[in-house]
Design brief:
Oligomer: single chain
Largest sheet: 7 strands, mixed
Keywords: Decarboxylase, Lyase, Pyridoxal phosphate
GO molecular function, one term: aromatic-L-amino-acid decarboxylase activity
Organism: Actinoplanes teichomyceticus
Order of helices and strands: HHHHHEHHEHEHEHEEEHHEEHEEH
Protein name: Glutamate/tyrosine decarboxylase-like PLP-dependent enzyme
CATH architecture of the domain at 101-346: 3-Layer(aba) Sandwich
Number of helices: 14
InterPro entries: Aromatic_deC, PyrdxlP-dep_de-COase, PyrdxlP-dep_Trfase, PyrdxlP-dep_Trfase_major, PyrdxlP-dep_Trfase_small, Pyridoxal-P_BS
Shape: globular
Bound molecules: pyridoxal-5'-phosphate
CATH superfamily of the domain at 101-346: Type I PLP-dependent aspartate aminotransferase-like (Major domain)
Strand order of the largest sheet: 1-7-6-5-4-2-3
């Protein structure tokens, strides 16, 4: 055994203590760490011929890399839709690496059953019934990709084509309809060989980011009975608008389509009694995407993909030779997602849910919603700020009477917060998205104070 490696084996408990102490120090300083770090110049060093040992590597990391890392796990990083990691989720994540299970089969470990239990818990959290099975993937982009891959297989079933064997070309032109899809849906269509240009956007309700159900029905009717894929959006990133899922699902009585719902963070509206109506009908979807590294506050990378058609999922992703019969019953997990070997990413979610339950996560969600409303109310009173939509859930979308990139740059340089830009109905705008378990109303006030200071 390499001498450094042997020494690390002997000193493992001390090493873990050192890492623990350092992690505690980092987390303790998180509220005061700059939300966005100034990124130093990058000068890669050559591969070390002989290593420094784990303690040496930790030292190197602390000196060279940690100063350039952002405070994105902290309370005022409001860019994109960014969660942090609750204490229990972090413990679960540490133990994921500690046990290093390849969570694919029940032959040698109960890890797969832990994932199944976690999926069941998530199903009840979001009000999904038993007809939905679920699988862990790396993020919402992968969840959308897997859901749309199952939808692609379903089109084949309707048209008498075996897409998994014959390829997507055998389907002819595929039609995908959506109101205000997330960029990752286009990426998924590119990866799936359907093509980005096959997505036809459907008119939205006036002043909204929710699809107009009548326009969707007209677009479906124009297909003359040809099956299609509809991507419904439950929580758009700009203004957190929700398609009317029940109205869309009801269109299946007259038109054949696969209903995929991108509920990456919007699914968490189900946890708030006042907002659960926004995702009414989620259970009617054929496939559902929910991100977990956003509002469940587990570390990257975790999302779940739910579907009612596990048989078609197996048809797409089975890892056995095409001439063998498809896996039946509860298939090993490498028959269900793009990965074969995979980490037990369910463990962090399992810890979070075991530790805080539905009530604890409801509290995070309602507190984040309250913080968004607080910021919205404060900003509405700042001269030169205009809200571009009412605060529906956890995002404040607003524009300012000056250069948006310059303002965001000043916000980032302050270290106190991080916000990201967008364009909403042609207007350059700013988004402040609340999804971190640490964020309090006082953080919303601090961001409001900062913005009014910079704008006056
Ligand atoms: C974040 C997000 C995605 C993509 O999620 P990743 O985890 O970054 O892959 C997809 N859809 C919506 C609505 C999102 O908010």
């Amino acid at each position: 055994m390499d001498a450094r490696l042997a020494a690390d084996l002997t000193g493992l408990p001390d090493l873990l203590t050192a890492a623990r102490d350092y992690a505690a120090e980092v987390l303790d300083g998180l509220p005061s760490r700059p939300a966005a770090a100034p990124v130093p110049d990058f000068a890669p060093t050559p591969l070390p011929a002989g290593g420094a040992g784990a303690a040496g590597a930790l030292q190197l990391f602390r000196q060279r890399w940690a100063p350039g890392f952002s405070g994105s796990a902290g309370p005022r990083y409001l860019g994109f839709v960014t969660g942090g990691a609750t204490p229990a989720a972090l413990v679960g994540d540490w133990l994921t690496g500690t046990f290093d299970q390849n969570a694919v089969t029940r032959q040698d470990s109960s890890a797969v059953d832990l994932e199944r239990e976690t999926v069941g818990w998530l199903r009840s959290l979001f009000g999904l019934g038993d007809a939905h099975t679920g699988t862990f993937v790396t993020g919402a982009t992968m969840s959308n990709t897997v859901g749309l891959a199952i939808g692609r297989e379903w089109l084949g079933e309707r048209l008498g084509v075996d897409v998994a064997r014959q390829g997507v070309a055998a389907l002819g032109d595929v039609v995908v309809l959506s109101g205000a899809p997330h960029s990752s849906v286009y990426k998924a269509l590119s990866m799936l060989g359907i093509g980005r240009d096959r997505l036809r956007t459907v008119p939205l309700l006036a002043g909204r980011e929710a699809v107009d159900p009548a326009a969707l029905e007209a677009a479906l009717a124009a297909l003359g009975g040809r099956p299609a894929i509809v991507v419904a959006n439950a929580g758009t990133v700009n203004t957190v608008d929700f398609d009317d899922l029940r109205a869309i699902a009801a269109l299946r009585e007259r038109h054949p389509f696969w209903l995929h719902v991108d509920a990456a963070f919007g699914a968490f509206a189900a946890l708030s009694r006042e907002h659960a109506h926004l995702v009414a009908g989620l259970d009617l979807a054929d496939s559902v995407c929910v991100d977990l590294h956003k509002w469940l506050n587990v570390p990257y990378d975790a999302a779940v993909q739910f579907t009612r058609r596990r048989d078609l999922q197996v048809a797409v992703f089975q890892n056995s030779a095409a001439y063998l019969t498809a896996p039946a019953g509860d298939p090993d997990l490498f028959h269900l997602t793009p990965e074969n070997s995979r980490r037990l990413r369910a463990l962090a979610a399992w810890f979070a849910l075991a530790a805080y339950g539905a009530a604890g996560h409801r509290e995070i969600v309602t507190r984040n919603i309250a913080a968004a409303h607080r910021l919205g109310e404060r900003l509405a009173a700042v001269p030169g700020v205009r809200l571009l939509s009412p605060v529906r859930l956890n995002v404040v979308c607003f524009t300012v009477d000056r250069d948006v990139p310059a303002l965001l740059d000043a916000v980032a340089r302050s270290g106190a917060a991080f916000l990201t830009p967008t364009v909403h109905h042609g207007v350059p705008a700013v988004r402040a998205a609340f999804a971190n378990w640490r964020t309090r109303e006082s953080d919303a006030d601090r961001v409001a104070d900062l913005l009014s200071e910079l704008l006056t």
